[in-house]
Amino acid sequence: MSVNKFFFVFKDSLIESDDASMSIVSLRNPATRNATKYLFRRTSKKACNLYEVNCFNEQHRSWFINESVCSNGKIFLPTPIDPLFLVLPYLVEHCSERAVPLDQILIDDKFPCTSQLAEVLPADRLSLIADEKRAGSILALKYNETKALEWLVSKCHRLSKVIGTEEGPTARSLNYIKEEKENEKDEDEKSTLHTALGIVSDYLSLEFGRKLSVALGFPEDENISKKRKSVVDLESAVVKRIKKEENHDTTPIKLPAAEKKVSAKAKALAKAASGSKSISSFFKK
């Protein structure tokens, strides 16, 4: 019986602990609301962290693992993700009007593992996007859009600073501009902030992405609404465009009829017959 094998790339810190356990589950993507793979890492100290599972895939690729061949040549890379991104849509849906306990917010019939997000959400983190209401030992939450936007704006600014100091071609280009044109410093900061906006928006709905864009001082970016098209939608659009180009309706162009050439012999016969009577005229009374 064959066993499916997958190739993961982990940081040493994720697997160096012997008491750590990992599990991969399907959760609802905060931006597309489709199924996406995530990884929970738990330790004996009841610490739990969440990672999104990114996949790099190329055709005609395999892996040699010890003395066997793994025909699945995909590379899976777990990277940390802020669980507030995944919780935010549920807060908007369930507790925009009233305060609701967390265990009643993280309910999704199609994704039963959604309730596990409570393990990676300290109370102080939830207060960044919601107001807390306490009644005895019960803690209820009410979504606060102002807080949520402030949290996202702060995240974009922090990410922008990281992008500006990161080594690489983009950073060198920005540093070059700063050295040559000091008066364009503000423009560089705006550019890195816009890049940060694009990264953060990948974890938000289209509507929330537009609100964040306005909160950062940018006009509503049309790219935010275009970047969410799935591969299926893109392929469908391409197919429709190709069919339209192949089967487009056109009005046929009528070319003038070519002038009929008359030979010299035909002209002579016509001239000779012009003065003669037709044979039927001899039979008329």
What do these coordinates show?
Helix 5 (145-165) packs across helix 7. The chain has a 5-stranded mixed beta sheet, with no helix packed on it. Strands 8-10-9 form a 3-stranded antiparallel beta sheet. The model is unreliable at 242-255 (pLDDT under 50). Strand 5 (63-65) and strand 6 (68-70) form a beta hairpin. The protein starts with 6 loop residues before the first strand and ends in a 12-residue tail after the last helix. By secondary structure, it is α+β, with helices and mostly antiparallel strands. It has a domain at 7-143: N-terminal domain of TfIIb, CATH 2.20.25. It is 40% helix and 19% strand. It is built from 11 helices and 10 strands.
Give the spatial strand order of the biggest sheet.
1-7-4-3-2
Identify the quaternary structure here.
Answer: single chain
Nearest-integer average pLDDT: 77
- What is the CA-atom radius of gyration, in angstroms? 35 Å
Beta percentage is 15-25%
Structural class: alpha+beta
Distance between the termini: 110 Å
Domain Rnh202 triple barrel: 19-82
Protein name: Ribonuclease H2 subunit B
Family: Belongs to the RNase H2 subunit B family.
Organism: Anopheles coluzzii
